[in-house]
Known about the structure:
This is Phosphoribosylamine--glycine ligase. The chain folds into 4 domains: 2-94, 3-Layer(aba) Sandwich (Rossmann fold), CATH 3.40.50; 125-180, Dna Ligase, domain 1, CATH 3.30.1490.20; 191-314, D-amino Acid Aminotransferase, Chain A, domain 1, CATH 3.30.470.20; 323-404, Glycinamide Ribonucleotide Synthetase, Chain A, domain 4, CATH 3.90.600. The chain has helices at 10-19, 51-60, 71-75, 78-84, 94-101, 103-112, 126-133, 159-171, 239-256, 288-292, 300-308, 384-396, and strands spanning 2-7, 27-32, 42-44, 65-68, 89-92, 120-123, 140-144, 153-156, 182-186, 191-199, 204-206, 211-212, 215-217, 221-224, 229-232, 260-271, 274-281, 323-331, 343-346, 353-357, 360-363, 366-369, 373-381, 398-399, 403-404. The strands form 5 sheets. Strands 1, 2, 3, 4, 5, 10, 11, 16 and 17 form a 9-stranded mixed β-sheet that branches. Strands 12, 15, 18, 20, 23 and 25 form a 6-stranded antiparallel β-sheet that branches. Helix content is 28%, strand content 30%. The chain is of the alpha+beta class and 413 residues long.
Amino acid sequence: MKILIIGSGGREHAIGKKISENKKVDKIYFAKGNGGTASLGENIDINPEDIEKLRDFALKEKIDLTIVGTEVPLTLGIVDIFNKAGLKIFGADKAGAKLEGSKSFAKAFMKKYDIPTASYEVFEDEKEAVSYISTAKFPVVIKADGLAAGKGVIIAENFDVAKQAIKDIMVDKVFGEQGNKVVIEEFLQGKEVSLLCFTDSKTIVPMVSASDYKKAYDNDKGLNTGGMGCISPSPYYLDGSCDFIAKKTLEGIKKEGFDVRGIVYIGLIMTDDGAKVLEYNMRFGDPETEVLLIRLKTDLLDIIQSSLQQKLDEQEIKWYDKSAVTVIMAAQGYPGEPKKGSIIKINEYIDDTFVYHCGTKLENEKYVANGGRVLAISALGEDIKQARQLCYKQIENIDFPNSFYRKDIGELK
């Protein structure tokens, strides 16, 4: 089988690594991939957002399956375009991807299907938004409506911060057209849990739980990032409450007629009133993928094929009864302007650890830092404590100048 994986991060490296374990896989292509994926298959120089070029490549190379890692191609309708061309593809159709592509659309979906979430208002006019927050109870959460690479959410502690956030998004257009609307929500107190689910639009199967660390520095200090680490299972997960939300989400997907043969990632917060939904993503999370797939016992390709055939209800999905921890090594300057160009040397690979490449390139047979989040170090252990120790032990075996990482991932207080 020939596989095409779309994206260039640690998530795509982890998907590729898991897929490569299947004997039926002959060749894996990555668009565009990175330094790590180059050793698993072939990186191709096609932008993930260039849907027509990707389709033409898949037809020419007779690709048997395409897996979409990153979100933008889904919102651009890659699944619809590939399906029309007779190509098999794992992901949400354009209509379903709107649950990630538009925060206001997702909130309306939750309201319609009685899915617990924070109360909210949507604004297309800056003055109306500012007028609304003048009487709001702080803190409030302000979100750009569209995709903003995980950076479009601001928790405003007071009126001035909220007003500035609205101006940044709606007037100064820091996220471009993605900020034409803002969603203003009540702030929910609680611990966050990532619940990723496999679905074929008929059945939904939650994976094991995870919790990620969004702030740049130890003790949750600094700016929000795409995620600086992750643990699985999450110690905060509430079984019944979360399963109920997954079922209600599937009910909505069915009634709306979305074709989602892929992933639904439900971002949850555990409140005193049970689990509530913060957001939907319609693809594998990053760094959640790097922590979850090392716990997956069942062959990933088998699950994907069952999903595409809408036979997920017949597919057994098993997980290792172990814990996993992922720690991100980032370039100095991230989440602002990262320092690129550092040469990375991995001196030793420790058993039960995995080094996934997020932002590297291969130059003269050497790995070079080429992004903000550069490496994802994952480890499997009998419990979080053991997995954590292995993770940091592996990091000690990596020479990466001008880098930083959080020292408190998996430190359960």
